[in-house]
Write the structure tokens for this entry.
Amino acid sequence: MPRKILALSLCLLPTATFADPPAAPPPAKETQLVIVSFDGAHDNALWEKSLAMAKRTGAHFTYFLSCTFLMTKADGRQSYKAPGQKAGRSNVGFAQSREEIAIRAGHIWQAHLEGHDIASHACGHFDGKGWSAADWESEFAAFRTALVDAWKKAGEPEAEPQGWADFARNDVKGFRAPYLSLSSGLMPALEAFKFTYDASLVTKGPGWPMTGDGMPRFGLPLIPEGPSHRPVIGMDYNLFIRHSMGVENKKDSARFEERTLAAYRGAFRKEYDGERIPLQLGFHFVEMNGGAYWRALDRFLTETCKKPDVACVSYADALPMIEDARRKADRSAF
């Protein structure tokens, strides 16, 4: 498997935390939410591709950004040290040039202006299962500093848009843990940094966000896939493992695309015709198996987002809609 894909293969995860989906709150049909997110948010060509897909389909996305893509390796040796690691280390690498950082920062700002949700995937993509609250806070502080300083690290401080610093300090409200790997220190650190949601869980099927830990916590669902309808986490990397054992296979790309699209359609139809529980799908900024999973996503959103009573939204968009559904459900109980 190519090194780049191996470095970014982030979510098969023996450390993933599975949770039973909570019972659906609304007794009546609500808007069917489709929530699509991307982990890493690095490759500039895929930034362009995803933003174009969003415009074409009417979707809003959540981008879980890894902050080492906003610094070069030389910068990292000076300014980034993950908990328990040597300075300047990252499991997913760094930006290759200052020009690359400038282009990426421009895409982040464009996405922000177009209503997408910029969220945190921490910095160097390390497994935090043994981290304390202080360790997580150190990583969150490094993320915030990297985002604030992105235009300086790009060598173009004069190009920084008005409002960037406020956005970088105050508008990143969501988090997904690398490898979906958690520790007891995570939630206190998220609260200390004023995050408003976590999306690091895995659920046995589509579920409403859990709210018992002080903030909404979303989980990627297991969905039926393939001829035997075996459950798989609704994320491109897990399909990549299922279809080709994590080895790039462009020859069968079209077949993998059709299987994936069928799985997305089936998972959507079950909720749309049923309890209208939000459907969450996760992706990476890597086109595995010849782009099969991104093509399936594009086709799925094109045929789904314009359906009646459907909203293809980010996690940030979904939160007030879900809260409104909960309030309606509470009122209907009396």
Confidence is low (pLDDT under 50) at residues 1-14. Residues 253-272 form the longest helix (20 residues). The chain is about 40% helix and 15% strand. The beta strands are 17-19, 32-40, 62-65, 117-120, 174-175, 197-203, 217-225, 230-233, 279-284, 310-313.
